[in-house]
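Something for you to look into today, if you have time. Just paste the record in under my message, thanks.
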Amino acid sequence: MSLLVFIVIFTAIGGLLSVMAAAVFLLMPDKHREAVLPHGISFAIGALLAVAFWGLIPHAFEDVRPEQIQPLSGTILAGVLGFFVLEKLLIWRHCHYGGGCEAHGDEEAHDHGHAHSHGHGKSAGTLIILGDSIHNFVDGVLIAAAFLTDVKLGIVTSLAVAAHEIPQEVGDFAILLQSGYSKGKALLYNVLASLTTVVGGVLAYFSLGDLHDSLPYFLALAASSFIYIAVADLIPSLHKKTDMKTSLQQIALILAGVLLICLMHDIAHDIEL
């Protein structure tokens, strides 16, 4: 079997296995899923921030030249600002065509508030798909690089990537459902985003030398998307409930998301070594 076929098969496994495992979340009855969903948002915040600060950013700055540090930091800054502008455009487009946002003074406050919230939620879902696609593309490049080093290392790396992604994919499903996507669309978009792992692997196979210098910037951009989503879109929604019990649950679940991602990352790192 050729190396390219190995890369295609195992990048697909690395991307799709985590989505399929997380899709069990969709099989829950609606009543139970609605009860679990707010907790999933808290968990997703911790997972996204941990992926960004524990995984993507350290890897982006690993083995770079001193003169690259500032451009990489600038990429994270530009990414955060860029995702803010993108979300603004998405919300504006929803309001412009759907009506009922603050710019439409002829609507009643309740109506425009609902529409603005809906537009904001949809934009968060769009951003999580975009950020996940970038992240999965980078995973595909990393899997291909491992295969180009050693086939056994590539197989182990692809399985480690799948295991690492499962808790994050659960969080992604929670975000998409919270954003108003149906179960079918949430699954479809997560599967499509996971296929960028294959794209990254195949592209890396043919041009890994050209991509090597760009890889840290892909990592930095993916990190900026996760930071923005967690801080701008998800954390504010947690402040709607301020009672002590809910607040402690939120903190505990955020920490659980952080700890699980860090644990998965360290296990994957040990396996790769």
Notes: Residues 52 and 223 are 4 Å apart (CA to CA). Residues 103-119 have pLDDT under 50 and may be disordered. The longest helix spans residues 109-149.
